[in-house]
Amino acid sequence: MADVVFFDLDGTLVDHRSAVLETIGQIVQAAPNATAPPEELVTLWWTLEARHMREYLAGQCSFAEHHRRRLRSFLPMLGEPVPENPGLLDAWIAERYLTVFEKSWRCYPDVQPCLESMKRLPRGPRLAVLTNGDPDQQRAKLARFGLLEYFEAVLTPTELGAAKPAAYAAACRRMQTDPAQAVNVGDMLSSDVNAAALAGLTGIWLDRGIDFVTGGPSPTADETVLRIERLTDLPDHLSPTHA
């Protein structure tokens, strides 16, 4: 039995992709001067999110600034002027993006049953969330769905001083466990499973049937990858009797 099980958050516990697409879809529909079709603008936002999130995780900007950088590229495509004042960009994010985005959060239906089953495991592992997201926003998601009580820790780059994949070693140190006794569960084959394995953890791929980044079919995994399709299958994979 593992000592610690780390859970990714977005795409694993909470449906981040659908929330983003719903939010940007509403914004685009309300933009009469948009310079591109709605589907192109949604794709653009997704591309900008990935690009500027990498900059945030690399320590090149704050979380607020990564939002501003997205807007500076996105607003012209909406047919809207780009404010020079950072405060006006922050207000746009708060009033037009976050209000809709936060209402669009959805917890996957297999999450709470999984966590309840984990609690009942004899000498079960300690549980923690390991996420690259903003700590306040990620804790707000967990609190919204009553999930905080299940986790001993919520670990982000702010607490660890590193993002995934470097965060795996830091997270094990924080939880005072050996990587060989730790499991990481997530929906991203490369960053949640393969990178965790390189750090000495056991990676378990939660294959929800969709590529989190592209929205296309799931990637193809090596046959040696531990794979589950539902979080409710996880407790059986942690059992000492699992073959």
Tally of helical runs: 10
What percentage of the residues does DSSP assign to strands (E)?
Answer: 5-15%
**How many whole angstroms does the radius of gyration measure?**
19 Å
Principal-axis shape equals: elongated
Work out the number of β strands: 6
Description of the molecule:
The protein is 47% helix and 10% strand. The protein is elongated. The chain has a six-stranded parallel sheet with strand order 3-2-1-4-5-6, sandwiched between helices. It contains ten helices and six strands; from the N terminus they run βαααααβαβααβαββα. It has two domains: 4-15 and 106-238, HAD superfamily/HAD-like (Rossmann fold, 3-Layer(aba) Sandwich); 16-103. It is of the alpha/beta class and 243 residues long.
Question: What are the main properties of this structure?
Answer:
single chain; about 240 residues; alpha/beta; Rossmann fold; 2 domains; six-stranded parallel β-sheet; 10 helices; 6 strands; elongated
Summarize the structure.
It contains ten helices and six strands.
Reconstruct the topology from this structure:
Layout: E1 4-7, H1 16-29, H2 38-57, H3 63-78, H4 86-103, H5 111-119, E2 126-130, H6 135-144, E3 153-155, H7 157-160, H8 167-174, E4 182-186, H9 189-198, E5 202-206, E6 226-228, H10 234-238
Parallel strand pairs: 1-2, 1-4, 2-3, 4-5, 5-6
Helix pairs in contact: 1-2, 1-4, 2-3, 3-4
